[in-house]
Amino acid sequence: MKKQNVRTLSLIVCTFTYLLVGAAVFDALESKTENQRKIVLQEIQAIVRKKYNISNEDFRILETIVLKSEPHRAGQQWKFTGAFYYATTVLTTIGYGHSTPATVGGKLFTMFYAMVGIPLGLVMFQSIGERVNKLSSVIIRSVKSSLHCRQTNASELDLICVVTTLSSLTIAGGAAAFSRYEGWSYFDSVYYCFITLTTIGFGDMVALQKDNALSKKPEYVMFALIFILFGLAIVAASLNLLVLRFVTMNTEDERRDEAQAMQALAGAVHLEGDVITANGSILSGQFGHHCTETTSLEIEETSVCSCHCGCFAPRTKNRFSMKRSPTQVRHLLPVLPMHELHLPQGTVVPPPAIYPNHRASI
Asked: Is the pLDDT of residue 271 over 60?
């Protein structure tokens, strides 16, 4: 089996195993808390309905009003600032879900906008990541030269360390800012930054969604957008080093296999009929076998020539393959002693003839 197929099957098995392990861990961590929160909410619902004497239909209406009014707490979501924030989440595939189009035209434009914008964004971030890695390699070489290191070239491990450090600093700095502006705990801010920069975008925590921040805090809006774009560029640099290396392994193996096949084809000799070995002997073929230099046949099993002269009954011609082409052929048709031919008296051996339809193809 090819190495590429083995790697693909291994990745499939590892991925599904990883999914099963993750599901088991999340079940153990979150299932109990989910049941407890559901029980608490049902108790509060019963207390509210009993206290204010609210019917089931009225309570459902109240729930709908609360849920639908949540996106409007940040102000108008579809003015230019909010629309730009939404377009950024679409192009970067974050997709918080904090605001979604309600009209048919908005939904249709979102689909076409994403079809063009997502590939454009991926290419842009990938290009920025390559430039970041290039700049990092230049800085690493300069530092190593100043320290008089023997090896001044930036290795792949050095680049991974640099971009990992930049990613950690970006998340740490962004978490500090969001913790201050949003009032979140520092751990929740780190969680938000990680979910955002990895484009997971659950939407359980979204910045710029309170105190009418989209309209009243333009500097905070600018910071949030710059953080998202710059952070994604740093993450793209990390992915360029880590993920793309594994992605291109199959392509490299395919090219290597093609190069080996071409090299083997260039060194192979295919002869129609008999096989001429490097020492000048002629080996008559047998169906389904491959003759090489080390192959030897008895003289009774070989024919002296492969022509139609009738001196010996030629065997059926077959195609053979020689693994290595002979470099020196001293004799095309070696002359055998007369006593080994066992010819009848008076028979004259005709000279070997070369016919136009008897040819060797390499």
From this structure: no
